[in-house]
Predict the structure.
Amino acid sequence: MRVVSLVPSATELLFAAGGGDLLVGRSHDCDWPAKAQRAPSLTQPRTTASTPGDIDSDVREKMAQNDSLYVLDTAGLLSLQPDLILTQDTCNVCSIDRQSIETAIAQHEPVPTVLSLNPHSFEDVLDDVLRIGEAIGRADAARQAMVNLRAVWWDTQDVVNPYLDGPATVVLEWSDPLWAAGHWTPGMITAAGGHQDLVQAGTPSRIVNPEELLALQVERLIIAPCGVGIDHAAPHVEALQCTSWWPLLPAVCEGNVALVDGTASFSRPGPRLAQCLQWLTGWLQDQPDLMPPAFRWAQVSSK
């Protein structure tokens, strides 16, 4: 079988399900595991802005005009003769839209199977491992991967007291405007012992205003710019630090603001959500021994 994955989380799930050797093409963002980069890249972003606010404006303008945010190498895709194409329906901003893919392959014979993922919770991610495993004929390996990921989830619960109201915690996936992370993230916050009322579990991320953060009295704040590595996240931190409301947050005053790698944590619903949950639990429960050494994060100063 020949597999093309056009979304990073699906690529990671493919490898987790034991199908990494089947990958023949990928998106430009599919950078983990490192072996995935051996396959040719088939997409490129059309957004050229650099600051958080300009990127948001560019994305909104293109979406309003029904322009795709990415360029697909259709000729390259068809030349690979894929049997299966992995994509997602959760967010049109994060990867090339499904319609563009289906249009590109409509005249190809035979038409490849398109498996689109749409997770909204950690449980959905576990189901996606199994779905990919079934699609590539490696159900046993996928089932074992699912069992291992589920074990991490349950192990973290051993250190969380469900009867205590933990710290008010918010994960910001963008800084200008402020986007509070939704989908699987609220459920992870609850599982790790925190709480927040801005976004319900399983619902999409949404724009919030500073007044909402101040009203919630956020005690733990995580900056996880969607699709941005920790080495390129400085503009997001600076955009927050220059606001008038930033020093008023309890999380800032108490030194409880963390910057994490958005490409390897909350923004990718793949197998690395498990280590993200371990880190989150350790951070919220003040138990650093629970934090995986490989998880990249940094404490953010108040200034």
Observations:
- The CA atoms of residues 211 and 226 lie 22 Å apart.
- The radius of gyration is 19 Å.
- The chain has two domains: 3-119, 167-299.
